[in-house]
Specification:
The chain is mostly helical. The chain has helices at residues 2-19, 34-59, 67-70, 81-92, 100-111, 118-127, 133-146, 149-160. It folds into 2 domains: 2-64, no CATH class; 70-160, no CATH class. The chain has 8 helices and no strands.
């Protein structure tokens, strides 16, 4: 709405300048201050450049990649194994375990930017042992979100492997 108002104003000014009769020898019929035309053009240019920046950001596929994969925080193998294990035990209890193969598979798939096949995931979730289904999903999400096969291996090595 505002951009169309600015454009209408500019067009009106151009029409006024084009149709003003020339009077006298100096050739100046109507003098317009530079600011009258310059400021709307500058405002329009700034808004257009902001729009282009936002559009390019929205269309860039790296925009939608999680921060851990972009490398802005930790690298995939910079996690403190003790801290991760203590947090898992604190949140889920001492019986918490990780399916190492599942975790590693999803960590490697996440690094290669493969997407989770939901049909396959649900089928494997249903075939997981009773009482361990929540740990199957934990393994999937840890692998996908953390993106560190080394973390999965280290947790299993510490006795947190489901089997």
């Amino acid at each position: 709405m505002k951009v169309s108002t600015v454009i209408r104003g500019i067009v009106t000014l151009i029409i006024l300048i084009g149709y003003t009769p020339v009077t006298g020898d100096d050739g100046v019929g109507l003098e317009l201050p530079v600011q009258l035309i310059g400021f709307p053009v500058i405002i329009l240019a700034v808004r257009l450049s902001n729009f282009v920046k936002k559009l390019s950001y929205a269309l860039n596929p790296r925009t939608y990649v999680s921060r851990s994969r972009r490398g802005t925080e930790n690298g995939p193998d910079d996690y403190d194994i003790d801290e991760v294990e203590n947090r898992l035990v604190k949140e889920l209890g001492p019986q918490v375990c990780i399916f190492e193969r599942v975790c590693t598979y999803h960590a490697l798939a996440g690094i290669r930017n493969h997407h989770i096949g939901w049909n396959d995931l649900v089928r494997k979730f249903r075939s997981a042992p009773e009482g361990k289904k929540q740990y199957y999903m934990l393994s999937v999400f840890m692998g996908d979100i953390m993106g560190s096969p080394n973390l999965c291996h280290q947790l299993a090595k510490r006795g947190r492997g489901c089997g």
